[in-house]
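Q: Structure for this?
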Amino acid sequence: MTSAAVPAIEVRELRREYRVRGAQKRVTALDGLSLTVAGGSVHGLLGPNGAGKTTLCKILATVLVPTSGTARVAGFDVERDALQVRGRIGLVLGGDRGLYAKLTARENLEFWAAMYGMSGDGASLRIRTVIEQVGLGGVDLAVERFSRGMKQRLHLARGLLPEPEVLLLDEPTTGMDPVSAHAFRDLVRGVVAAGSTVLLTTHDMAEAEALCTEVSMIDGGRLLATSTPRGLGELLTAYERIDVRTSDPATAERVRTQLEARDDVAATAVRDGTTVRVETRGEDAVGRVLSALVAQGLTQVAVTSPSLDEVYVHVIGDRGMDVR
Amino acid sequence: MASPDLLAPARPSSARIFARAVRTGAGDLRTNYTWWSWSSGWLLRCLMEVAFFGLIGLLLQSREATYFLLIGRALFVGVAETMWVIQSTAWERGTGTLPLLVSAPGRAWPAFAGRSTQWLPSAVTTSLVSLLVVPPLFGFGVTPDGLAASALAAVVSVVASYGFALPLAAVVLRRPSWRNAASNITHNVMGLVCGALVPVAFWPAPVQWFAQIFTVTHSLRGLRAVLDREPGGWGALAAGLALALALGTVWFAVGAWLLERFAEAARHGTIDIDS
Amino acid sequence: MRRVGAVPVIAAAALLEARMLRRSPAELFAVWLVPLQTLGYLAIFRFSGRDDLDAYAVLAPAIIALWALALLRSGEVIANERDNQSLEAIAAAPARLELVMIGRVAVITLASWVALPLSALTGWLFFGVVPVVADPTVFGLTYVAMSLATVATALLFAVFFVNSRSPRIFQNSLSYPFYVLGGVLVPIALYPQWVQVLSRGVYLSWSADLLRASTTGTGLQGWPWRLAVILGLAAVTFIVAHALLGLTMRNARREGKLGLT
């Protein structure tokens, strides 16, 4: 169990560059990232593909060596004390591969148990427990017959198997159906309650909001901001917008001009000729604008949440977040 | 009502498809080998294979046996390489191009068959070099007659064997995981009975009959007739090569037919073409 | 933190490989082809009227199978983990990759032992070759020593193949050159002197000579030190493989080459 004094994960000015084969360029995956994760928390790393999330996970797991900077997991340096780090972490990279396809789930886990120094009855019991936890109990198929979601759960089981102090989850719910994803969140809460620390990378803001005690937003190998889930939630609702479908361009333009005049509308635009996109401003603005539209008889409306990229465009600066 | 400007697309000719597929195969080859890696890796290994068998003759202390084994294995080595057709045809399944192939308007067999021609130039060269380089190392001369006969035999053997391999390739398409086993078993069985190791007559009658299905049995017999300076050797060579080519053509036709059946089955969904 | 012992890791890796082989026996086709090879060599010898060479014909395919599986299956052990995307997971675990490799390669090598009874059975069924060994002790010890050397060589193959851009070329070209150099069918004593010198560096030549000698009962002089040579070659090969593997993994962690991306 990580003591409260020593952070579970401590990253200082971490850089990771790659030499691209054949070119003179160097690609920077991590650009001076600094981060601290306290023990017993669920820390989210939110960012689009290529932001550097997986690179960070790999460095923390000692699978990749940083170009410069330091990283410590459970108090141990990932380069100098790599063996100590490996014995205390669980890594879940996920995906379709990474499991032994011809073997069953239990046989896979038997191998991994030995890789973590688990043996005998203790290992068997732990394997049974973990299989039940991820909902794969009673499944006697070879992994090659598993669905994508089942494979993801097996990856998770492997990460949980050695009861790690720090669990690194890289996009763990990719490929999972909503029910499994929901069950997964309960699982993570249970793991944390038992004393582990979780670092979770994702590009799904809703998931980050639901699960994490803290969320760091990362892009281009840098930390952009750190927020609480509440701050994230506010971002999501603040950048919601309304799409109004009209019957022809003339009507669209009329509606647009009308809406633009309102105080609680920040911007309007016509898309695809007949759809008006409205960005609102202020609390409860969405509700009021919707009421106004429906009162006019415009019922073909949709409220959409911003994508991660759109949030990022807005995020640095001024949106009422706790910036660390 | 169909627009008069709409032209019915012509069905692409099988020859065109074949030619294109040959180019694809050449591309495969270029990504796998460079001249250097082919000669130092593959060719050298083949020469060593022929030498391996020639050395048995040394163990037996028999010049006759040495020459017999050298010639037999040298011609056979190119034919064995041609059996890679069985593997490369199955590659189409692995690359995910299969659904596209079977839904295209042309016939499927030229695409499969064309791509697999990539082994032929290498196989012919391997056999020819083996026939001309290794026997001299063991103290056997090469005459102009021998050179001509070897060249003819190498080309015909490889081309005819390519036809032989096609039906097997078509069968293996249904079970791609068996392609390595199928290719290896085929060339090992062939090598055993076709007269490369011992004369075909050594084997019991049923095995002798079985050996006749392989095209190399006939081309090898013809080649030996010239190299061993048998009376009427060239006649025997001509007969052997003609028989090999005829047999190879029959096998090729069977193979093309099986490939079309495979494509039919894929279109009808009886085969999972996504795996 | 738990202590990770070497033996449990090797055992777990061995069990992993055994389970995988059991579910795809076609992977061992180098062994299934042995009867055809035995028939071929016996046919050549019998056609020349030499039934005193039966032992040579039966032993050669078994030795070839050991090497062929090392080349074709063991050699791919690391590359397969990488392609399977499980190499990163192993690298992140406290157990050493080398131990995993040893476990898997050991099982593959043991599996190739099936080639010997298969070859002997073929010889007996088709040519009436009586499978009798004059000196079973030396035979057994030699087989074990040869297998240890094969494990070490397989580890070396695995390191080379994972570092190479076209391992297929190695796999296809390292067969017959070593059957010739290793004197697996024709004793190297028949080669020119300069080739014999090269062959002496290949453990196969010492092993094949000793196996033939212990089967026929002649030529067993100095067998203990000949055995020691095989083990010595095994040890040297292992040390080189061990060093290269360490270098490979250090480099892979630096360049990020443990995964596919």
